Amino acid sequence: MATLQEQIREVEEEIKKTSYNKATSFHIGRLKAKLARLHDEVEKKSSSSGTGEGYSVKKSGDATVTLVGFPSVGKSTLLNKLTGANSEVGAYEFTTLTVIPGVMEYKGATIQILDVPGLVKGAASGRGRGKEVIAVIRNSDLVLFLLDVFQPLHLPVLRDELYEAGIRIDQEPPDVVIKKTDRGGIRVSATVDLDLDEETIRSILDEYKIHNATILFRENITMDQLIDVVSQNRSYVSSMCVVNKVDLAFPKTLEECKAL
User: Fold this and answer.
1) pTM more than 0.85
2) What average pLDDT does the segment 240-250 reach?
3) All structural domains of the chain with their residue ranges
4) CB-count exposure of residue 79 (10 Å: 0-12, 13-18, 19+)
5) CATH assignment of 63-171+234-259?
6) 217, β-bridge pairs
């Protein structure tokens, strides 16, 4: 029997070789739903085996902000400037090996700021203690991306890693309600015009073994967003972006960074 990783690769290949059109949308919807379900199974197995459970961080104050960036981008320095926390600073990778919390007072609000180990490409799959870091990010109210001005393309990499881990940055949960029923099949209603056809909707629900339910759409969404609704384990977090080392960059470099 194929392993979960082998099944994931097979589904990914099938998606790549399937041309997207109206006639194949239901098939692609089922494949994407299966892929999401397989990734969720991998995550559950990782957690049950004792990895990927996250660092033990107790939320406090009025809001929690997590500093996210590649290793050695300056997160610890920023935390120390904002909060006076004693986070070790070093010019080498992975200086921060645990979560360093700090507290900032601003206009009467108490804001908890967390410095976590730097994320790297592949973090969603566990590389560089990525799963533990991502578990902390899931519970944040705001992600503050910290970038090196000379490495602006790190931003889409970071956003992609969080997306793969089920964290939706700067998105709202889709306005869709699914109520499971005992019988009656899948009944679809909508207050807006939908791009998704009912066959695609049913194929996605079927992959999650939902065969009887009413589903109400109050906004037009993509099949990926519908899969997010069905999976019920996505986190929706706002973000800001801060660029470091701007004093070392030429004007052209700054303009290129702003354009991204």
Assistant:
1) no
2) 89
3) 4-50+174-231, 63-171+234-259
4) buried
5) 3.40.50.300
6) 176, 190
